[in-house]
Amino acid sequence: MAKVTYVEHNGKEHTIDVAEGLTLMEGAVKNMVPGIDADCGGACACATCMIYVPEEWLAKIPGKEDMEETMLDFCEHTQANSRLSCQIKVTPELDGIRVSLPESQH
Amino acid sequence: MSTSGTNGIVIIGAGQAASQAVMSLRSEGYEGPIRMIGDETEPPYQRPPLSKKFLAGEIGFDRVELKPAEFYANAGCELLLSTRVAAIERAKKVVLTSDGREIAYDKLIIATGSRVREINVPGFDLEGVHYLRSVADVHEVQKNFKPGAKMVVVGGGYIGLEVAAVAKKHDISVTVLETAERVMARVVDPIVSHFYERVHREEGVVIRTGVTVAGFEGEGGRITRVVSGEGESFPCDFVVVGIGIIPNTELAQDAGVTVENGIVVDEMTRTSDPDIYAAGDCTNHPNGVYGRRLRLESVHNAIEQGKTAAAAITGKDKPYNQVPWFWSDQYDLKLQIAGLSAGYTEAVTRGNPAEGRNFAVFYLKDGVLIAVDAVNRAPEFMTARQLIAKQVKLDPKRLADESISMKEIASA
User: Fold this and answer.
1) pLDDT tens digits, B148-180
2) Min Cα–Cα distance to chain B from A24, Å
3) Which GO terms describe its biological process (chain A) (predicted)?
4) Given Cys at both, which of A70, B7, B152, B197 links B378, Cβ 3.0 to 4.6 Å?
5) Does domain A2-100 have CATH number 3.10.20.30?
6) Under an 8 Å CB criterion, which residues of B touch A?
7) CA neighbor of B337 nearest in space, from B317, B305, B363
């Protein structure tokens, strides 16, 4: 279990207890956090689940694989700390993580 | 709000489009009651994983359901599961369930999806003959997953090939029987079909094309072999049949709503009845990119039409007009398809489908990009999605030239 805070583009925060093994995308989608579309349900096929991860947390997450890297290139609002939330699995190390959501996923 | 009345919205169907419609109705500001009627025991869930990770046993139902159980109650949506709708009475604006309930609506969304096409040969009802569309189906198929078991797959489309790939990982011997001359003939070009035949064979699957199934034979009521129309016998412990789907349009048709290759809707998902909308697999809808009507079997279409129906019901104009896209996961192959290639005049290959496991095929019609099949080539897929929408002419030589990146091609 890890406490995850999703911060919408408008500043609104949602703090959710997400079970280990779920992805950050699932934590958001299952708890009605707006701002993550996840059109393909987590198959790394659509790049609509993008989030910004603060640097100090990036180090605690396995790096991007090729597919994620290339999909991210096509997101509208990609920044250096962008990740696809469907590729990040929740572990106890991520307890307290805060991630921000982009203006839109399209 | 363009809905008045107290009966609220009724949604027939409890799948992808239905679930999206509920989410979107609330986010569009609709505050009245919503009732969703589904004939499965489960609340809405994703179907794509059923022939992939869910079948493989890598994830459970909790990872497949679209929303946790509390979501619907919290959203003021009543779920009526394990309930079949017997008829729609448009004059009274009620829906009749098979157990005799009358459920009144102000607006109705038909999101009945599709059902599997059943094979009509002798022995069709032998034990061990399976289809794969629902969670219940998967549980039945999984009972046969034992190392060394022999599976025959009837149908070399998405379902057949995905199931074959999963079964291979479980040490099951797999034979795929396909009537057409190549696999996935409905959805991809021959170049891509042959690539998939090569990879499946490399993985140890027997793929037989140009084979028709004449019947299933068994002992003691249980299947023991598949017999082909060409006189061959394929011994097996169980069979999975994946030969396509049929849209569930009967309720609409019986109620006098216009149906033709799907429930006919406009770009706002409105049917021929002003109080009835339809979304998802069951619809025939106009597409502006291709200038023709389409019936699509895809998650993307279900999601987008669910959103469009909710917008239309709440009085907003958000016409649905997008480039269709699809995906399939088999082994380490990620197939991503954007657009529809029917009617192409030129196919341009980027990369080498004869070796390795990544390449893309672009389909042009009179020079304009209309579709792409990309295998482990996300940039090709994502770029093409954007370019197809713009309906631009592209130079085939540049598309085939891997020294020019997709980004450069897009910005030219």
Assistant:
1) 999 999 999 999 999 999 999 999 999 999 999
2) 13
3) P450-containing electron transport chain
4) A70
5) yes
6) 27, 46, 48-49, 63, 67-68, 71, 74, 299-300, 303, 325, 327, 329, 334, 336, 376, 378-379, 382-383, 386, 407
7) B363
